[in-house]
């Protein structure tokens, strides 16, 4: 089985990728930065700061992976560009140097959200948030350094064991621990973390190049998503306040719906919508 390097291996998506790929028999090398990694059979852990191009180049030169899945990122803060954008460029350049297949994780928030339809792979980035700008810059750096790489645009990632950051926030809002509104006019295509990880591993064995949208099949508002999550965890969704993203400052991208037809035709991994996932896990309760 080929050698797979996963950056951000202790992150929410990265940890599932590490577990799934080890179970499939890959020779797994996973990197971490601030969070100490667990001990897993078949997994070699290496510390790595993707801001350091020399460290990235040395890591890939010593491990010689056949495939790289780059999940490491920073969503905000002073290191946003150096980790999320420049770090992606460093990984892409190092992967190209050792002729490794590269899958880079991008985001649906590279768009301004003003389209009245789902975004396709042919739509150019038009970010309006700092994180969106960083992810758009990352895509450009990856394409320049590693033309045969894939930049996967995905959406909100959720899961159950443990619950993801968005689910924890939603449950805190539902329980009154946090006072916040969930938006009825902001649309995404949330994807189950296990489905996304499986799709990325399958994608890494294909010859596909360029941009690919991989997200869940259901388009839901942030408010709808919140009510579904609350019900799934046995909380009362009526306690979640609804609001309008259009009233927020600074502005947020409102329609980040992704057209996933190309991924559905390419991959055998089901890209289930949240309703199907909750139903499959026995969490879709009455009213969902």
UniProtKB/TrEMBL annotation:
- Which InterPro entries does the annotation name? NAD(P)-bd_dom_sf, RmlD-like-bd
Which is one Pfam family of this protein?
RmlD_sub_bind
- The residue ranges of the RmlD-like substrate binding domain are 3-273
Q: Where is the signal peptide?
A: none
Entries under PANTHER family matching the protein: NAD(P)-BINDING ROSSMANN-FOLD SUPERFAMILY PROTEIN (PTHR43242)
- This protein is called NAD-dependent epimerase/dehydratase family protein
High-level lineage? Bacteria, Bacillati, Chloroflexota, Chloroflexia, Chloroflexales
